[in-house]
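Quick question, first post here. What does this chain look like in 3D?
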Amino acid sequence: MNALRQDLVGHCARAEAATAELLSQRRRLIAAASLSPVGVMAGALVPLRARAATVLPAPVRDLDAAALALFDAAESGQWVHARAALARARTAATAAGSMGGVFTEAGGALHHYFEARNGLSGDLVEAGLALSVKDRRWLIGVAERIVTRAGELAQPFAERSDALTPRIETLLFLARRMRRALVWNDSIGYQGAHRDFGSLWQTLRPELVTSVPAGRIQALDQALQGAAHSPSPTAGKRLYEAVRALRQAD
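> Answer (accepted):
Ran it through. Tokens below.
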């Protein structure tokens, strides 16, 4: 038991340090999204839910879906659902372990594939540890990293000609940051992510009015306002789903 507690203390200390770095990354991310959405953001965030022309390998799609389910379960402390999501993520990761060929055929560098795969292996082990002690803070942070790993594995298959998609993915990234900050009781992190979200949304919104149904844009406006006035897991998830709806087919 003492060894487990020491392990937890070590992980929590690393998580706190990672949080500070993530705040710095978020600032760089929002600046990149505003100034050069295609050139910079396409390499930083890879869209998984908005590709009509590009077919993702099934293991990557499955990994992304499982990671998001794990994130949701960690946020709400639904441990049975978290275990099921982690099992699906492990299955998807095993399948992704043999897709090095298609990764390089799609233009990806082999060393990037190995980096993502090896990082994913460590993340899944850490997720199991976090789940074993039912630590919401720890698990939601690891789940977010697994979402990122799925993006890394999807990178060669990404459609980069769309200037809007990377910025929508940035909104999703910031919405997850807000939800994670609530779990961590990090009011400063929440406010910073909300402010960055609002800034990016103001630049993106005018570009969507001719291509996205007005109801979806209004829904996001309302969700963003709700997230400001009444921060809660429900409000955070509502905002996240409103962003995802921007890319749904009519």
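The two ends are 53 Å apart (CA to CA).
Residues 14-53 have pLDDT under 50 and may be disordered.
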